[in-house]
Amino acid sequence: MPTPKVSVTMPCFNCGETVSKALDSLLVQTCADFEVVAVDDGSNDNTAGILAEYARRDSRIRVVSIEHGGVITAANAAIEAACGRYIARMDADDESLPERLAAQSRLLDENLDVGLVGCRIRFGGCREACAGYAHYVDWTNTVLSHEAITLNRFVEFPVPNPSIMYRRECIDEHGMYRDGDFPEDYELLLRWLEAGVRMMKVDEELLIWNDPPTRLSRNHPRYDVDAFYRIKTEYLARWLARNNPLHPVVHILGSGRTTRKRADLLLAHGVEFAAYYDIDPRKIGHIVNGVPVVDRNDIPGAGEAFCLPYVASRGAREDIAEFLNGRGYELGRDFIPVA
């Protein structure tokens, strides 16, 4: 049997209500040279029966059944069983638009230096009820180039996991998903970027990212905000050691309690804080754990400080970037956003 160009890996657990729509979206792809490796992770609903029926109807769908081990075990089992030159991820509650596999594989064909590609995605939930998720989707759709992905990797997860496609060699060289008290998809992306894997996105909507209440990222502690910051900090600390010309000293933009809680994680990695900077006159002049809170206008000149904006309120990141650019600071050279 010929090797497919693309393997779509799909972990499945109790997804009987959604998996048919996900599979149907793949079976109408304009690229026909693919397989689907659907791993039934010990489901106790009708998932196994639905997968078996689809596999009976279309030989491109292969089903692997395992004892319940969780999404990481299932995702890695799918990767191990995949035969394709390119490996795509898809969740069993999302939908791929018809051009997805063709467009993403074409981008990899045409850019031999690129290891992983994503795409713009369409939010499939309620924008009013799930405004935070919708805002995140809108943000990811602005982060398209390798440079943008690289410089925004510590803000949020810039390439949503269900949208990725990558070369098999990336797995061989840099490993699969790792288990731990952190979001495994974000950790994989940070690890691959740290290893030098180039990434970019197709500038088209190719995936509908649904937001059901059962989504793991809403319910599992591995995906809570603190878990994101723990793994983010680990990779950020190593990035600073390589890229901050004034290492280990950094300047923190923001001085609120949440900012300090998240920035303080860097202290365990040997990073030192010169100052916190704020625009709130009620905070300026205070000393917090030996670190002064300084008026933002008194920030050192470009080349004299490396800054980490830790302010996460909507619009604050853009405001800080405009402020720093106005002072001659360059993104990636003099500062990198982390919230």
Characterise the protein shown here:
This protein has 339 residues and is of the alpha/beta class. The chain folds into 2 domains: 6-223, Spore Coat Polysaccharide Biosynthesis Protein SpsA, Chain A; 244-326, NAD(P)-binding Rossmann-like Domain (Rossmann fold). The chain contains 12 helices and 13 strands. The strands form 2 sheets. The protein has an 8-stranded mixed β-sheet, with helices on both faces. Helix 11 links the parallel strand 9 (249-253) and strand 10. The longest helix is centred in the C-terminal third of the chain and has 19 residues, at 225-243. It is elongated, with a radius of gyration of 22 Å. The termini are far apart. The mean pLDDT is 95. It comes from Pseudodesulfovibrio nedwellii. Belongs to the glycosyltransferase 2 family. GO terms for molecular function: transferase activity.
Q: What is this structure's SSE topology?
A:
Elements: E1 6-12, H1 19-27, E2 34-41, H2 47-57, E3 61-66, H3 71-81, E4 86-89, E5 95-96, H4 100-110, E6 114-123, H5 131-140, H6 146-151, E7 165-167, H7 168-174, H8 184-194, E8 198-209, H9 216-219, H10 225-243, E9 249-253, H11 257-263, E10 272-278, E11 287-288, E12 291-295, E13 307-309, H12 316-326
Parallel strand pairs: 1-2, 1-4, 2-3, 6-8, 9-10, 9-13, 10-12
Antiparallel strand pairs: 4-7, 5-8, 6-7, 11-12
Helix pairs in contact: 8-10
Pfam families: Glycos_transf_2
Protein name: Glycosyl transferase family 2
Family: Belongs to the glycosyltransferase 2 family.
